[in-house]
Each structure stands twice: as C-alpha cells, then as structure tokens.
Amino acid sequence: MFKKILIANRGEIALRIQRACRELGIATVAVHSTADADAMHVRFADESVCIGPPAARDSYLNMQAILSAAEITGAEAIHPGYGFLSENADFAEMVEAHGLAFIGPEPSHIRMMGDKIAAKTAMESLGVPLVPGSPGELKNIEEARIVAARVQYPVLIKAAAGGGGRGMKVAQTEDDLEEAWQVARTEARTAFGNDAVYLEKYLDKPRHIELQVMADAHGNVVHFGERDCSLQRRHQKLLEEAGSPVLSAAERDALGEVVTKGLSKLGYRNAGTLEFLYQDGQFSFIEMNTRLQVEHPVTEMVCGVDLVREQIRIAAGERLGYTQEDVTFSGHAIECRITAEDPDTFVPNPGLITAYHAPGGLGVRVDSAIYAGYKVPPYYDSMIAKLIVHAPTREGAINRLRRALDEFAVVGVKTTLPLHRRIVDAPEFQSGNYTIHWLEEFVAKGQE
Ligand code: ADP
User: What confidence score (pLDDT) does residue 164 get?
Assistant: First the structure.
C-alpha cells in the first residue's frame, strides 16, 4: 500500500479523499493556489504545497507544478478527485511516466471515454444499448438532416468533447436544425477546442440513471447499483438519489450484468460511471465518466462501501476481494448539492461566510470544506456543501432531508438551500414521478 498520496484537488472532495487516506494510514499532500492558502484541505493535510496563483489554469490545472509537488514531497500516487485534471488522459500518462500511480483508470480508457463518439462506439460493440442517433461525427448539415429524419424530431446536437452540459442544442423541427448545428459547434469549439458534434434523438421524458462500477487490475468488476440524477437544471445535477424510485431490482441486475461483462472485456480498471437515459423501460447509454463522481456518497450510504478507499486499494494493485453477490443495498439515500448562488437566478455569490451550522443526527452526512469565517473564493465551482441523508425507506429519507435542511444554516452568502427546501415539499418530488425536465419547470414557476 502507498505511504503518501498527493491530492490534486480542493474543497470538499480533497477533504473526502484525505479521510479515506487517513483511515488507510496513508499520509496526504495537499496542493493549493494562493487563494486557498487558508482552506480546510490545506489545514488538514499532513503536508501542503502552493502550486500557483488563483486562476485554475495556473494552479489546479498546472500539471508541471503538481508533478513537482509530488516529487518534492515523495508522494507515490496522485488522486485527481473530480473536475480539474481527473479526466485528462495526458495528465494520467505524465503521472505514470514519472513513476507514480494515477488513482483512476488507464489513460487509454480515459481518452476513449472522453470522446463521446468513441465511447458510444465502444459501448455498442460491448452490447450496451445507445440513444438512437448518428453513427459517429456528423460530417455536414446534410448528414444531420438525413439522420434527424430517420430518428425523428426533436433531436439533440451534442459535442463529442462535451461536459458540464455545454455544447448541446435541441432542434424541435427541421427549421431549427441548422441553427442548433451552428450554435453547438461554436460552443464546442470555444469550450473544448474541438468542434466535432454528433446527433441523438432528444428523449422527451427520460430519467437520468447511472450505474457505479469498480474494477480491479485483475479482471474483477462489480457494480454498486444505480443513482437517479434526474433533478437537473441546464443539464447539471442538483439532487441525486440511490436507488432510483422507478427501477426494480431485476432491471438493475440486468443492466449491471451487461455493463460489468462489457467492462471486463474492455479491461477497464478503477471507478467508473455509465450514464443512461431511462424511458419507457429502456436504458440508452449517453456517456461514461472515468472518475469519482460528485454524487458518489449516495452509493456509499446504501452499499456501505468507501469508494475512495476502493479506488486507492485498486491503484495499489490490490484485488477487490468480493464478488457481485457480496454487494448489498440497504435503504435509500439522497444528496443535495448546495452552492453559493442566488436560489432564484443561480448567479454565483462568493464572499465571507459569517455564520455556519451543519445539521447532524442519525443518517445525516455533510461533505463540505467551509466554516464560519471562510471566504468563498470567486475563482472556482460554487458548490460549498453536499448534504447526504440515509434512511431505511425513501419516505424516511425525505423526512430526514427536510429536517436536516431546516437545521442547515449558512449566513453571509446566498445559497441554494431555500430551493432544496422547496423541492423536498413538492408533491412531484415526493411521488418520485418526475423526469429530467421537471426541475427546470419547477424553478421557472417559482420565479413567476
Ligand atoms: P455532459 O457530459 O455535458 O454532462 P451528457 O451527455 O451527460 O452531457 O448529458 C447531460 C444531460 O443532458 C443528461 O443528464 C440529460 O439530462 C440531457 N441529455 C443528454 N442527452 C439527451 C438526449 N438524447 N435526450 C434528452 N436529454 C438528453
């Protein structure tokens, strides 16, 4: 096992990874920008190295600086967390070329899944069902017209290099197609430096259901069940549940079997998440994330597993040591992503937190790196806390979530706590009967 790990991230996820390291008896190295010198992840680490100025491209995305920090401190492995360099195949390669372990998949698999077209092609060959659409990159608008007519409108033009819900445009009819094609390509070029786009049928009432997998370097693959992430705004997740309120155990098992067999054939290693749209009892693959997800805690709560610990063990060459039959699911978990944003307009609201009280009690977990007196910097993602609750039933989890949200106090910056309180009380949420479009409408109604 490793003696020392460098964590190439900040905020709650850097702390989350430190916790797993500490329980494994592994020393931790934090890296930070000058803006984060006082951050919790720096204070709690065994060692820390300043890697540059506030802008992420000069610090948390600065591969050379991070590798130097690993070398100076004698770290043996790097955990990238999520975001930043976590899905950068070049970085993973550089880490390995420096004789360090990258706590994640093989660079070739990161590269493959980072190109959504390549990912879909690979999944299709492994027997995983896809959303109907273009067989690959769209060569021109004429091809887009032909494919759209075949799969039928509405359709979605998506960036091959897409992420974070960007580079995605809907065409309701043929009249919108050319504009959607142009806008998606421009957005993709600006955001990702790659204007390759593809086309998918736009599903009108799907749920977003994803499957958590874990694979060791010895060919063993298991899944830890599904997460339902249908509560989204602008294609970004706000609240996630495990398990899904609409999925049966038989459906989960069937999907899990196809996926674990496929990934075993691919020789995939470490953590991964396959994202699907689920509509009319059908799963359609949309993308695979080759990293730890923001919403991983809901899976940990229902499976009683520490996913970061598993990632570290696997990167150190250890075997899973259990099989699919050993993975069991207990109760229901819900996570709310709390951001420092105006709850109506979603405009980021960084600044000084003057008072802070986190909820507690049975079945309540808060993953956060903020405290009273902390200044939320304007340079990074605005998520400041994740509230996770677990209870034997979904109804129990909802009641627990309501009371935990009531206890939660963050003063000094605007947060999305009021929106989460409204969601918990909405009959559509309580019934579990919602699609990926529901939250957007719910938010719009609240703004009227
Ligand atoms: P990103 O990598 O930018 O997150 P995804 O492909 O994962 O992009 O899609 C993000 C979200 O966009 C999905 O969770 C879903 O809400 C919506 N979406 C993606 N593809 C489709 C589709 N074919 N039909 C309807 N909604 C879609």
Answer: 82
Calculate the alpha carbon distances from 100 to 76, 308, 346, 385 in Å. Answer: 5, 18, 40, 31
Helical ranges in 126-211 per DSSP H:
141-151, 174-192
* pLDDT value for 446: 84
- Record the pTM: 0.97
Residues with CB under 6 Å of ligand 1 are 131, 156, 162-166, 200-203, 206, 208, 232, 235, 275, 277, 286-287, 436
How many other CB atoms are found less than 10 A from the CB of residue 235? 13
- Which residues of the chain are under the pLDDT cut of 70? none
For residue 200, the ligand 1 atom closest to its alpha carbon is 23
Distance 292 CA to ligand 1 centre (A): 18
Cis amide linkage into residue 80, ω under 30° from 0: no
> Annotated catalytic, 291?
yes
Q: Which two tokens stand for residue 375?
A: 């200044």
Q: Alpha helix locations (H) across 167-242?
A: 174-192
- Using DSSP, state whether 428 is helix, strand or coil: helix
CA 358 to mean position of chain CA atoms = 23
Could you tell me the two tokens for 427?
A: 């009959």
Residue 258 and residue 367 in one domain: yes
100 within domain boundaries: no
Domain boundary among the residues 178, 201, 224 is at: 201
The protein residue whose alpha carbon is closest to atom 6 in ligand 1 is: 286
Centroid of ligand 1 to alpha carbon of 235 (angstroms): 6
Residue 352 and residue 252 in one domain: yes
Closest ligand 1 atom to residue 202 Cα is 24
